[in-house]
Amino acid sequence: MARISYLWRRGATYYARIDVPLDLVPILKKPTLKRSLHTKDEAEAKRLLNAVIEDWRREFDDLRARRVLTDADRDHAVWGHYEAALDHDDAVRANLPGETEIEAAMEAAVERVRTEGIDMRDPLAALDVALDVQVVKDAASVDATARQAKLTDMRKHLAKGETALIADEVNEYLKRNRVYVEPRTPDWISLARRMMRSEIEALQRTLERDKGDFTGQPADPLVKPAIGPRRETAKPGETLMEIFEVFASENPRGVAKDRVDQSRRDIGTFVELVGSSFPIAKITKAEVREWKQLLVKYPVKATETKAFAGMNIRQIVKENEGVGKPVLADRTVNRYLSSLGAFLSWAVSNGYLDKNPTEGLMLKKETKTPTLPFTTDQLTTLFNSPWFTGCKSADEWRNVAKPGNVLIRDH
Length: 411
Prior knowledge:
The protein is mostly helical and 411 residues long. 56% of the residues lie in helices and 4% in strands. One of its GO terms (molecular function) is DNA binding.
């Protein structure tokens, strides 16, 4: 079985090369990533390779984590859109022309008639001058009419399942928050409909404000302040693997380098699951439990198997349902958990998180077959054997089981 190589040589120069995971090809728009290592020396290239591969893997993890639209994402999108719509209304109202601006427009119209010599007996000329004043005078009512029309259309579109009126806002939210959800997918449509309901509520508030009522609150139960956390990422320099390298350099238990390297690989599969930017303080039993459940189905030497190239741990487990490679033994799964447990125990001691979430999640160790007691018949047979009643010879093994006069006392 050939090991997958990330080192590639073109001409005399070495390059790092990695296959883009299949699920990320539509986002990155390419099946393979390549980067020059700027060296012709193989040993130097190998030294530089790991850092490049880790950068790519972190990018993959981040992209993958942002392909899933969470409930918190939806809640923040809905409430954020509602508040933004009302903020926009505040800004528009603050800039609507008042009595002073209307009077100024009328004075400007009179001045225009005088300086340009406009004949007010000409209906078209008079209309042209009057429109300048009317636009300023009717700005508030025009804005209110536009909002009422939009509210009517938004309700119709929501009832019909159309999303054209909100599509730009949905895509802008996804882009701003780096969430990669394809248009017209169920997740995208669900978010669009929620944001439409949010805008309907906001438009209703603006119409209430036209009447002087600024106390209105959303009646739609879906439109409410978001209480779930926004997407969080690790602080600069505190990604899981960056913190692991601090742990590895301290090596608090003084373990051998091979064991440290093994732990790095073990924990790498956990990072692959949660994403490299996942904050260490947010790791709970839920993440560790999901990892364990995948590990018991994880094929042996998966990273060295071409059939699993470019796949993450979830995809590998799914693919192996058809491939049928042998999976990790329970003791190996426990080794993975032990690697993560030791790291997180150190992290607790160093203030990165409050409690080690791996505690109590080890698989049960295999139990030995219990020793069965002798039956009465077996004991009778044993004690009536030449070993106890006398054998032919205690020195010749072939005669030990033969009846005789020699008693074995020192055995």
